[in-house]
Write a structure and sequence with these properties.
Layout lengths: L1 H14 L10 E2 L12 E3 L5 E4 L5 E7 L4 H21 L2 E7 L4 H13 L1 H13 L1 H14 L9 H11 L3 H6 L4 H8 L2 H14 L8 E4 L2 E3 L4 H11 L3
Parallel strand pairs: 4-5
Antiparallel strand pairs: 1-2, 2-3, 3-5, 4-6, 6-7
Amino acid sequence: MKRFVTVLALALTAATPPAKHVAAPVPAAPPVAGDWNSLVQVSPIGTYVIGNPRAPVKVTEYLSFTCSHCAAFSRDSAPVLRGQMIKSGSVLIEYRPAVRDQADLAVTLLLKCIGPRRYADAAETIFAHQDDWLGIAYRYLEKDAPRFALDPVPEQLKTLVKLGGIANQFQALGMSDAEIDHCLSDPKRLQQTVQVAAAGSKLIKGTPTFFVNGTRVPPIEWSGMEPVLRAKGAK
């Protein structure tokens, strides 16, 4: 993971001017019916932050969409973490991409293009269907990707998405082929995502990795994370 994002970050830095970060968090929607899941902000580094800004428990999750442990955490945690803790306003969560490989990068970019309001639900769906697309994507990367290695990174990602089983997943979420191509063609979005992942690779050894109120939590499943959050005040 670390080598992939470091090499890609260097290549993109050489080819593209640094992306301009958002000056301040931008609310995408106010809380609806007391549900803080509806308040999504875009952080200064372009990540999505969901929940009550004044929550006593603030979680940062470094995740990868090609990580089976991340998929398991998404599945196991959703009813309580999203359904109770974030909803109640006692937990705020920021999702940061770790980007382990090209397939992970492509999915991460497409989920960003889904937009703040739909991000969490769409990410949960992609994780739930991981078995449907991940094997196809990896077979493509092993057998066919070398033929396109000299193409610009956005073109490599477009080919991977089309031939690696990823496009179908996002079409089911309502994205058109044109929207998928446009999303993967944005150099600033690509560079910003890779820069976040490269910075994160210096802090983590694997995914998922969590920081709770600024302190890293040892590798843990939801059954272990829930009591950590409860002890900090999550409800």
